[in-house]
Amino acid sequence: MKSYFLRRLLLIPPTLIGITLLVFTITRFVPGGPIDRMLQQAAEGGKGKGASASSKGGLSDEQLEELEEDYGLDKNTLTAYGQWLGIFPREVQISKGEFDIQSDETIGGSIDGKTTALLVLKGDGRLVHVKRENGMVVSAVFSETGESIADENWKIRYETETDRQERYLRRNSGTTEKPAYRDRAVVFKSSFSGMLQGNLGRSMVYGDPVVEMIASRMPIAVYFGLLTTLITYAVCLPLGVLKALKHRTFIDSASSVLIFLGYSIPGFALGAILLVHLGARANLFPLFGLTSADFGEMNRWDQIKDLAHHTVLPLTCYIVGGFAMLTMLVKNNLMDNLAADYVRTAVAKGASFRGAVFGHAFRNSMIPVATSLGGLITIFVSGSMLIERVFDIQGFGLLQFQSVVERDVPVIMGTLTIAALLTLVGNVISDLTVALVDPRIKFE
To answer: Fewer CB near the last or first residue (10 Å), C or N of the chain?
Structure first.
């Protein structure tokens, strides 16, 4: 069994890579990406300003290239994904300079007719002098000291007019016109900075690091996940046992009506009803948020009461849908086991009915329930985006929803990675739990 779970754990990384690569590829071809967003913002910001080209709704080639480089759109899909993953280096502090035949007085006059490029390093401010000969870079030095830029780990790439025209055509797929360009030198540094290094990028909408955005939502997700799990199992397990023992009685029928009524009402719809009647009209509960505006000024006891007051309505919506499934699962499995031969044999040998139920049938009835325990790990982060939206709770589910609506690709990839990883780990935990509950199961 150890080898089985070891294989399952080893399968998690390739599976996670497959999931994230698929979604990453889709996001690169879905309309409304970062460049489309920037163009739209430029167009909206330029209304009524007829000054420059950018204020009229356009961005210059330099600005568009910077956007492509920021989001890896200048690279092919596999390279860009490798950079996001952290196995390929990113190009940072990118500086560019076009070649031209000129004299440069800063380095002592004539340059022997060789074409040169001058550029200022981003984030550094120093001037770099690049020489080329026969279509190749022959030297790249700091103008002040004459030292090679390679001594400080700078790298250089040579881009011809054809390279720049091809990049322009990829960016403007609907045109065949090729603008005239000069060859240029591109100076940059390489840096491994991706998911494996703990860097999920920055939100293209808010500009905040994705890791920090997710970390700020996790306490809320864990809070509701723990409460939902504890209350659901604390109520449904004994209720399922009671319904099995009181089958076809008034208690069984009445509880079935209630739990199926709750199951039939979507959580977000119930939330809207509760907000209208118990929040707006009766003024018994707050209408939005998880804490009051003056939460930080309260003492500890008042903070606990305020948090509990804000928690009641959303928590009710969280747990109401899960009652029916778990309760009926426990009831049906327990009834099947109570009718099994081994329970009748135990009673015939002198075991009490209570002992037969809880000593034999109940444990076997928990095997199907145990298969769902691994899925609980996803509750702690997934939440319910609709419920969080109704109550305006800044949880993990709402973050996922907002990132998809706003096409915030770095946040989409970050939240997907965590959700997918927890789902895969949860599946392994489910198998492990089943093996612990039922010793007859042997994974090979």
So the answer is: C
Q: Which element (helix H / strand E) includes 226?
A: helix 210-245
Instruction: Answer whether 165's CB lies under 8 Å from 79's CB.
Output: no
In Å, how far are 208, 381, 404, 417 from 27, measured between CA atoms?
A: 20, 22, 10, 14
d(CA 71, CA 60) in angstroms, rounded, equals 17
Other beta carbons less than 10 A from residue 384's beta carbon: 26
Integer Cα distance of 71 and 89 in angstroms: 14
Q: Are 94 and 122 in contact (CB under 8 A)?
A: yes
Predicted structure pTM score: 0.79
Mean pLDDT, the chain, whole residue set: 82
pLDDT tens string 232-253: 888 888 998 999 888 889 998 9
210-437 architecture in CATH?
Answer: Orthogonal Bundle (1.10)
Q: With 50 as the cut, is the pLDDT of residue 32 above it? A: yes
The alpha carbon of residue 225 and the mean position of all alpha carbons in its chain are separated, in whole angstroms, by: 17
Q: What is the DSSP string of 398-433?
A: HHHHHHHHTT-HHHHHHHHHHHHHHHHHHHHHHHHH
- The alpha carbon torsion through 194, 200, 202, 208 (nearest 10 deg) reads -130
Cβ within 8 Å of residue 219, ≥6 positions away:
none
Task: Name the pLDDT band for 89 (thresholds 50, 70, 90).
Answer: very high
Note the pLDDT tens digit of each residue in 311-367: 999 888 888 877 778 888 888 888 888 888 888 888 888 888 788 888 778 878 887
**H-helix or E-strand spanning residue 92:** strand 90-100
- Measure the CA–CA gap between 260 and 325, rounded to whole angstroms: 9
Pull the structure tokens for residue 177.
């016109």
